[in-house]
Design a protein that fits this description.
Helix 31 crosses helix 34, helix 34 crosses helix 35 and helix 35 crosses helix 36. The strands form six sheets. The chain has a six-stranded mixed β-sheet. It is built from 38 helices and 22 strands. With 930 residues, the chain is of the alpha/beta class. Strand 18 and strand 19 form a beta hairpin. One of its GO terms (biological process) is DNA-templated DNA replication.
Length: 930
């Protein structure tokens, strides 16, 4: 039975303002006033009114920064920063918007909006009404109960009791007790130190409520938790008074005054026109019959959020969509795509592995709301023993019809994660279809917002279109009940697959115009987009591994693990399971009596002793057993991840291992290797070299390795403009010896290796914003000595300190840093109040332009290399990229010539104040080539 509609909708106006401001890209009205939050707010109101005809709606605001809670606890919200300058002028405009829509705007001095929402909710439900609170604010979740729900206005997700339990671990009635214990650093609610949401939920579930817990705190077995509760009991009580909403606030307007009234259409139209919200005017039918704005106009100066609205097709719904099951209909859609010049494309397959996936169907999107699915290899459902397969076009006929469109240079094909679709379509089993030219919405988003959020289609759709797409699980099932996509009924497959094409096209309209404004259009068009076919070719090529050698290696590693276990048991004085953290902790701390790091018995959240790598490294100074366990763990991981697993990851069709390179994973722009991860094989250990020896060339070929030398240090010398470092690089000097000579005042000739090692640790540590404590650990010196080294380094190279401060300041002001090649890398934690988290973000800000710059350079080289090799008449092919290294497979007779072309192309990929140097080597296996 359908749930009754709400009788009152309360909009958390203050909360939504901030969410809209951060969710939408910058935009201004003609006079330059920022309006992105206003635009988001207006469209949310318009949607809410349209979807709830006849329902009363009120918008509730905070009247000021202080409330009665500051009398209880003066520091309440005291550390909240001022709103961004671009948001300040939008507060008044949003109140104007509420008035233009004819809705009541409610606020009251000395009370927060949350208290007013609580009071109106109580008053309405006491009269038998139902309330929906439009907000995702966790503080309002305590109000959820029968007859009261919430709605996330950005994600359009309802929040009921189940969602509250999922977030807090307790039902809504207990939320206040959990919040009182956990506190809230954003609002400066003290809580109890050391107790987070998860622990608080466990305690409240066990003891029932806060007062019972505090009364029985002395019974708690964990000493640290018990002492914290006893010491901070009053802080917990104060915190509860701060987080509990007061539902007895005076009602500025009586319930009767919240009656629905139609807005003055002329007044609303005039106000929307003044803000230049043309798509909203069109959607509400207030534009006097003019056509909705052209989405492409965003690139000609139109605000990007307005373009996003137009891309969403304004009133164009998501579906229903067309199923194409005959050739004539397909040809008509193809003809329309040729006429329009842009078509969104998406494939449906039976596997996530592009090297083995069979094409089941594909979808086409021509305009917002106009998309279709073409089933090609759907089978009858497995529970139907007889009967024909679903109606669909003959596979070869469909491929023949699609081939000219997909290859037509005058029709842009828009995809999300294009690399996967291109690889699937290129396989002979799937028709051997070439697709060009292309745009990729995932990579467009990545160039704009790397580090800000993920770039999957569902995330982007919710963020930019306000639409949650149909999930894959909902059409195929999950776990053992999951069916292949080829068995999904055609109608359900159409709803899911065509929506993907529709969403992709709308995202393209919304996001692509922003590339020029953000000054990353060249990065996208000349690097990221051109890299897609290069990476796809690498993945298709794969790399050969010696299965016999891997099996022999696995046996060798097993013998070494057994020997290490024997040594560990001897050191422990008894046998135990080395891989068990619980048993290891008992041996280290209870039986050997080692002192935990920091002078206390560090335990995990489950109460076990912490035995992670950091703990074991510190314990190694006290006893030889921890170091042996670290060695055992590393070897066990290498055995399972590579020696054992790689044998099973050999593709039976090609006889090679095919990794997948994620192009939008690392915020710095680095590629990430998965399934298998070939970027985590240690370079400098014997075990790592042993694994690399199993990567071999085909008969008559060699593997050619080309590696940038000290590229991040060279970038540091470039961006920080350090004359001494630049000169050393230009002269081909030993950079670490030169640094030691500059910093420590010792001659290079006859330099003590330890001195050079210290300079090397500083050189590389500076790139990662190393602290004196971190450097002290690396060099086994006191923090005071390490600080003296760092101070001497900065005294000799002041440009580096200036660079570091400049990057931190850039991140604080803009929210992102940029590489020398204009890649934006967002640093979300730069404004954190927590010093540890903020320090981590500051180190990110220092390192990201260097690591990202190195990624830019090698990507620029990768884009140029296929053409350079072809122009030289060489047949070698690129197989792998591992950070600063590229691996090629080349005919033996072409090794020297290929090395020369590769070296020249890579060293010419960028022009810096210092030379780029590439070292090459060739051999039958990867280890000997490196």
């Amino acid at each position: 039975m359908a749930e009754a509609p709400p009788s009152l909708i309360l909009v958390d106006g203050s909360g939504y303002i901030f969410r809209a401001f951060h969710a939408l890209p910058p935009m201004t009205r003609p006079d330059g006033t920022p309006v992105n939050a206003v635009f988001g707010f207006v469209n949310m109101l318009a949607k809410l009114i349209a979807e709830n005809p006849g329902q009363r709606i009120a918008v509730v605001f905070d009247a000021g920064r202080k409330s009665f809670r500051n009398d209880i606890y003066p520091a309440y919200k005291a550390q909240r920063p001022d709103p961004p300058p671009e948001l300040v002028p939008q507060f008044g405009l949003i109140r104007e918007a509420v008035d233009a829509f004819g809705l009541p705007a409610i606020e009251l001095s000395d009370w927060e909006a949350d208290d007013l929402i609580a009071s109106y909710t109580r008053a309405e439900t006491e009269e038998g009404g139902r309330v929906v609170i439009v907000s995702s604010d966790k503080d309002l979740m305590q109000l959820v109960r029968p007859g009261v729900t919430m709605l996330d206005p950005i994600k359009q997700r309802p929040i009921g009791e189940a969602e509250v339990v999922e977030k807090f671990g307790v039902p809504p009635a207990k939320v206040v007790d959990v919040q009182a214990l956990a506190g809230d650093p954003v609002d400066n609610v003290p809580g109890v130190p050391g107790i987070g949401i998860k622990t608080a939920a466990q305690l409240i579930t066990e003891y029932g409520d806060l007062e019972t817990l505090l009364a029985r705190a002395s019974e708690i077995r964990q000493p640290k938790r018990r002492e914290a509760l006893l010491e901070h009991a009053e802080a917990a009580r104060i915190s509860k008074r701060l987080v509990a909403l007061n539902d007895r606030a005076p009602l500025p307007l009586p319930l009767a005054a919240l009656a629905l009234k139609e807005p003055d259409r002329a007044k609303l139209a005039a106000w929307l026109r003044a803000q230049n919200f043309r798509s909203t005017l069109a959607r509400l039918g207030l534009d006097g019959g003019t056509a909705p704005p052209d989405p492409g106009a965003a690139g000609r100066g139109k605000p990007p959020a307005e373009a996003a609205s137009a891309a969403n097709g304004d009133a164009a719904p998501f579906g229903p969509y067309v199923t194409i099951t005959d050739l004539a209909t397909l040809e008509s859609w193809i003809a329309e795509a040729h006429r329009l010049g842009v078509v969104a494309l998406d494939t449906e397959t039976d596997s996530l592995d592009a090297q083995s996936a069979m094409l089941v169907g594909l979808s086409l999107g021509l305009a917002p709301g106009r998309a279709a699915y073409v089933p090609l290899r759907h089978a009858r459902a497995r529970d139907l023993a007889t009967g024909p397969a679903p109606e669909q076009i003959d596979f070869k006929s469909a491929v023949a019809a699609l081939r000219p469109l997909l290859a037509d240079p005058s029709v842009l094909k828009v995809l999300q994660n294009a690399k996967y679709d291109l690889e699937v379509l290129a396989r002979e089993e799937n028709g051997g279809l070439a697709v060009s030219p292309i745009d990729d919405t995932m990579l467009i988003s990545f160039c704009l917002d790397a580090g800000r959020h993920d770039h999957g289609m569902d995330e982007l759709s919710e963020r930019h279109l306000g639409h949650r797409p149909i999930s894959y699980d909902s059409v195929t099932g999950t776990g053992r009940a999951r069916i292949p996509f080829s068995e999904v009924p055609i109608d359900r497959a159409t709803a899911y697959a065509a929506e993907d094409a529709d969403v992709t096209l709308r995202l393209w309209h919304a996001l692509r115009p922003r590339l020029r404004e953000a000054r990353v259009l060249a990065l996208y068009e000349h690097v990221e987009r051109r890299l897609i076919p290069v990476i796809a070719a690498m993945e298709r090529a794969g790399v050969k591994v010696d299965a016999r050698d891997l099996k022999q290696m696995s046996a060798e590693f097993a013998d070494r693990l057994a020997a290490l276990e024997s040594e560990i048991h001897a050191l422990a004085g008894r046998p135990f399971t080395v891989g068990s953290p619980q048993q290891l902790g008992k041996v280290l701390f209870d039986e050997l009596g080692l002192a935990p790091p920091g002078g206390r018995r560090a335990r995990t959240a489950t109460g076990q002793y912490a035995t992670d790598a950091g703990v074991l490294e510190e314990l190694a100074a006290q006893h030889p057993l921890p170091a042996k366990v670290l060695e055992w763990r590393q070897l066990a991981k290498l055995k399972s991840t590579y020696a054992d697993a790689l044998v099973h990851q050999i593709n039976p069709r090609t006889g090679r291992v095919h990794t997948s390179f994620a192009m939008a994973a690392a915020s710095t722009g680095r590629l990430a290797s998965t399934d298998p991860n070939l970027q985590n094989i240690p370079v400098r250990t014997e075990e790592g070299r042993r694994i690399r020896r199993a990567f071999i060339a085909e008969a008559g070929h060699v593997l050619l390795s080309a590696d940038y030398s000290q590229i991040e240090l060279r970038l540091l010398a470039h961006v920080a403009e350090v004359p001494a470092l630049a000169e050393a690089f230009r002269n081909g000097e030993d950079i670490h010896a030169r640094t030691a000579a500059e910093v420590f005042g010792v001659p290079i000739e006859g330099m003590d290796p330890l001195t050079r090692r210290r300079a090397k640790a500083i050189n590389f540590g500076i790139i990662y914003g190393i602290s004196a404590f971190g450097l002290a650990n690396q060099l086994s010196v006191t923090p005071g000595e390490a600080k003296a080294y760092i101070d001497a380094y900065f005294a000799r190279y002041p440009g580096i300190r200036d660079y570091m401060e400049r990057m931190k300041e850039e991140a604080r002001i803009k929210g992102f840093v940029t590489t020398p090649f204009r890649r934006r890398i967002w640093i979300p934690g730069i404004a954190e109040k927590n010093p540890a988290r903020r320090g981590f973000a500051e180190r990110q800000a220092i390192n990201a332009p260097l690591q990202g710059g190195a990624a830019d350079i090698i990507k620029r080289a990768m884009v140029r290399l296929p053409a350079a090799l072809a122009e030289a008449g060489l047949s070698g092919r690129m197989l792998l990229q591992v950070h600063d290294e590229l691996l090629f497979e080349v005919p033996e007779a072409e090794a020297d010539a290929t090395a020369e072309v590769v070296k020249r192309t890579m060293e010419g990929a960028a022009s810096l104040r210092v030379p780029l140097v590439v070292e090459t080597g060739a051999a039958r296996n990867w280890a000997d080539a490196h």
